[in-house]
Write a structure and sequence with these properties.
Largest sheet: 5 strands, mixed
Shape: elongated
Structural class: alpha/beta
Order of helices and strands: HHEHEHEHEEEHEHEHEEEHEHHH
Number of strands: 12
Strand content: 15-25%
Strand order of the largest sheet: 8-7-9-5-10
Helix content: 25-40%
Distance between the termini: 24 Å
Mean pLDDT: 89
Length: about 375
């Protein structure tokens, strides 16, 4: 079995874009991102309580298979891919998998060029990536969710939190309300929201305008929010777009800006909190239940902005997958495969209901 290691990868909005470096200087952002050692130490605590659902079937080879497969994609999935490949070899010794770790954005070109059969992507493919694939083949790539995102590890496809200034009395939002704040299309059917008083806040908040902060696009997190919250809708024209400058990453810049702006709201990771901001609880619909994004809520995917990571493949509609590709994906979605997610310790095993959905995409459980 050959495992080849490689290099790195992560970014919307138009409107009142402020040059980020100037904004950083004005607001006095003298903050450095956590170093790799600190991130690893924090990440190592992600899943000690995560366990694999005992209802998951074990992987059992259905036939003698052999051949070569190549995976090209996310470097942030490198450790997990290595664990999967090494363990899979115990069950399918005839299948040799080479993993080339680059960035998530390398997966689509490799699948299009036919230089890879597997595309590990630590986010949803971006619109341009899927468009390029469809231009070549006439159908979209198939993404299989293979693990849950982390709860709060920087750079590791973490859950998304919604932040407001600590002085803001708002404590919770539905996704329909959040969509109405962030978009012009309001696909979830809520009325337009431009002032805090429209959410029931009184006093000085009644006529205060809602200021929105987000990341500059194209970006995987912005795309996730657009698909998950806006249901593919159009972003508000009034978003202040921030990007990474030096050691200050875009998500930390967002929470720092909200901490300086009492009327601010935006999205970032739970790890990007600071003393001047707070998160709000979220619900899928009016009446709740509302979730705050605890470890258990992210693990179970009850928290609405929990995330997943993928392996993309080229499968023509109506055609079965190459048996070797199918076997590897069936293994990943099995008890043994999800055990390796727990072993990796940062990404999280998927809930049973999601694993069943993904197994159905492959044409049924084995």
């Amino acid at each position: 079995m050959r495992i080849t290691m490689g290099a790195v990868g992560t970014g919307r909005a138009s409107g009142r874009s402020i040059p980020t470096l100037a904004l950083a200087l004005v607001l006095g952002w003298g903050v450095c991102a956590a170093g790799p050692a600190a991130q690893r130490a924090r990440g190592a605590q992600e899943s000690p309580r995560a366990t694999v659902d005992p209802r998951l079937p074990e992987y059992k080879p259905a036939a003698v298979l052999s051949g070569e497969l190549t995976a090209v994609g996310a470097d942030t999935m490198e450790t997990l891919m290595k664990l999967w490949i090494q363990d899979f070899a115990h069950y399918e010794p005839g299948i040799h998998i080479e993993n080339v770790s680059k960035v998530s954005g390398a997966a689509a070109p490799a699948l299009i060029a036919g230089t890879a059969e597997l595309g590990p992507v630590a986010r949803e493919m971006l619109p341009r990536e899927t468009e390029d694939f469809e231009k070549r083949f006439g159908y979209p790539p198939v993404g299989i969710a293979v693990a849950g995102g982390s709860q709060r590890t920087k750079g590791k496809t973490h859950a998304i939190a919604i932040y407001v200034n600590k002085a803001n009395p708002l404590s919770r939002l539905t996704l329909a309300q959040l969509d109405a704040i962030l978009s012009t299309t309001r696909n979830r059917g809520y009325r337009d929201l431009t002032r805090w008083g429209q959410l029931g806040l009184g006093g000085k908040w009644k006529n205060a305008p809602i200021h929105i902060y987000g990341v500059k696009q194209p970006n995987g997190i912005a795309h996730f929010m657009q698909m998950r919250v806006l249901e593919g809708g159009r972003w508000s024209d009034g978003i202040t777009s921030l990007t990474t400058v030096g050691s200050l990453n875009a998500l930390d810049a967002i929470t720092l800006a909200i901490g300086k702006d009492p009327d601010g709201i935006g999205y970032a990771g739970f790890q990007d909190a600071n003393p001047d901001v707070k998160t709000v609880a979220l619900a899928e619909k009016k009446g709740g239940p509302y979730y705050r994004g605890t470890f258990e809520e992210v693990l179970s995917h009850d928290y609405p902005l929990s995330r997943v990571i993928y392996i993309y493949v080229n499968r023509q509609p109506g055609r079965a997958l190459d048996p070797r590709i199918d076997a590897f994906l069936q293994y990943i979605l099995s008890r043994q495969g999800q055990d390796q997610v727990v072993k990796e310790g940062i990404f999280l095993p998927l809930p049973y209901r999601i694993l069943e959905q993904e197994r159905a995409k492959l044409g049924g459980a084995k």
